[in-house]
Amino acid sequence: MKELNCLHHITLCTGDAQEDYDFHTRTLGMRSVKKTLLYDGKVPIYHFYYANADGAPSAIVTSFPMRHTGRMGRRGGNQIKTLMLAVPRGAASYWLERLAAHGIAATLTERLGERRIAFTHPCGIPYELVEVDDDPRRGWDQAGVPLDAAIHGLHGIEVTVRDADVMDDFVREAWSCERGVDEGATVRYAMGAGASGSLIDVTAEPDLHQGTWTFAEGTVHHCAFDIANLDLQREYKAYVEGLGYTDVSDVKDRGYFDSIYVRTPGGALFEATVSKPAGWAVDEDPAHIGEELMISPQFEQDREEILEIIGRVAY
Ligand SMILES: [Fe+2]
Predict the structure, then answer these.
(1) Topology of domain 7-310, per CATH?
(2) 225 CA → ligand 1 middle, Å
(3) Cα of 6 to ligand 1 centre, how many Å?
(4) Cα of 205 to ligand 1 centre, how many Å?
(5) pLDDT at position 298
């Protein structure tokens, strides 16, 4: 079965909430499409969702600012390493200037035939802005970045693995990918026609120490992939389990989508998710999504108590 369409979202464990919000919305010019809390556990942690103009699958970056928990992560092997975002062809020079003006060191590089700007989130997670031609996804031009440079959405992820062979088996057989080009220790895999937003680059780094898998500051927690509906998701879970990857989770209601998770043999946590029909408007006026904090259902404390714990963020 090759039923996964593209990336849906990528989720990071970051540091300070205000710093994370400012980095995504003010420096990168992304749109806030939802502010809620992590749906797992009893300690309240923000869950911020950032996207392009439409907030559609393949264009969503989400974060758990972790600083108040004191849990620091370790970047390393068998983990998602780099988040790649697509920008219009020719936008690299704009971004070099903009990032420098925001105090962020960035370099222009080329890999797999693509021009890209490499830099890091303030918590240390590597980011790349990759120039892409003819991307139909709409950038968001209401946060200071003009349309001809605005982020279209996710381009892909880079996963670092200690053994590339078992990850090659997994992404081709279980995760809807075809093998594509390679360069050095990196092999590119893609879903469907291989458009921007559907790419997984697997890099073999056998000497890297194992990275953290828990929710912990400074690491990528997981990447989600889009699947069309709940029936297909149920069939896909059975298919992946039937290959022998038996630790696929039950369906978890994430408020805005329904998700299953699997720990890949390359270590990274992957998710297959179905967007709810109402999307971001399930609990907010569609004209004002992402403006107010939506408290997730497992918390019994009131809003003021929660804000005391997680800290107040100026939007
Ligand atoms: Fe997720």
Answers:
(1) 2,3-Dihydroxybiphenyl 1,2-Dioxygenase; domain 1 (3.10.180)
(2) 9
(3) 14
(4) 25
(5) 85
